[in-house]
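Supplementary Methods, section 5.1.

A reviewer requested that the exact input to the structure prediction be made available. We therefore reproduce it here, unchanged from the version used in the analyses.
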Amino acid sequence: MEKRGLVGMLVLAILAATIGGAATATADSSSGAAVAKKKKCKKRHGAKRKCKKRDRKTGARRTPVVRATLTWFNGGANDVDVDLFAFDSNGGVAGNGTDTIPLTSLSGDVSGPAGSETFTDGLFTRQSSRDLSFGVCRSGRGGARTDFTITYVTADGAIHGDSGTFVASSHFDYPGGAPIPSGYCR
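The structure derived from this sequence is encoded token-by-token as follows.
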């Protein structure tokens, strides 16, 4: 009888050790797989599946964010040109078909009775982002009333919106930290 009890306890001890070792091995292999995956991602920059870029300062993933959207409507005048402008703290400007702000994109320049333009920032992260200011400029020969709406995101991630009306050529400024140069709207 004693032998049976001892053998039973021994079997239970081996079973417990096997289950504990398997759990440890699984935990080690899963964390090892994550490390291997990270290393594999680093080594394979040219592969089809690219690594997500991370911000050097914060380690956060960079996600392109539409920082500003402008839409307008005027009821039919074709000679109206409304433009979205973005300004960074280094003096870069995006607007009216040009973009000198690094790692950003501006949609094509649109004119006519209605339209929309967007500005996308490729460096935006939740932890840190660059200060940008925005401007809306209307140019054109006609004096047709033009209504617009702008939605923009400041560096702190807050979403702002405004709407206005142009009766003639003029501009509206939306400061967000970067200086807005005078004379950007001709």
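Residues 13 and 171 are 80 Å apart (CA to CA). These observations are discussed further in the main text.
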